[in-house]
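User: I'm writing a short methods note and want a consistent example. For Peptidase C14 caspase domain-containing protein, I'll paste the sequence; you return only the structure tokens, no commentary, since I'll be parsing the reply automatically.
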Amino acid sequence: MFGKTQTKNLRSLSQQIISNIRKYISLTLFSIITALGAASLSWIVALSAVHATSFEIKDLHANRVGAYQESYALLIGVQDYTGYWQDLDNVPEEIHQIESILMQEHFHLNHLMNPTGQVLKEQIKAFFQKEDRQTKMRLLLFFQVMVIPTKKSRSLFDPN
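Assistant:
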């Protein structure tokens, strides 16, 4: 389980990511996420639309930087690998830890474990294009997967 410091750091990181991504969001983001498909790393992508009044978003200095009405998260975990790739036993536990934190923050959660490339693309697309959601919301996409660094590219992704 995360301690108070890690939880605070996760929230701070999410707020920083929200701020940065709001500046650059476009359809390119979906292309990047799709290209990473079964990417092997743990990372968070958070998106936010502002102008709501239900929940405030504050930075590390308690300055109001936005607001939202609803929060949605898609938690993706890949633990089963083929060939020379070693399975990751800790993925379900780590997904559960993130889930616990997000539930405290009133997120609506969706899970995707060990998806095929096609299922991954379909679910990410559906997550971002869901029509019945409010425009005043934040979206969080979390990947828990594996990365192996190389000298040339700094990372090598599982092609499956």
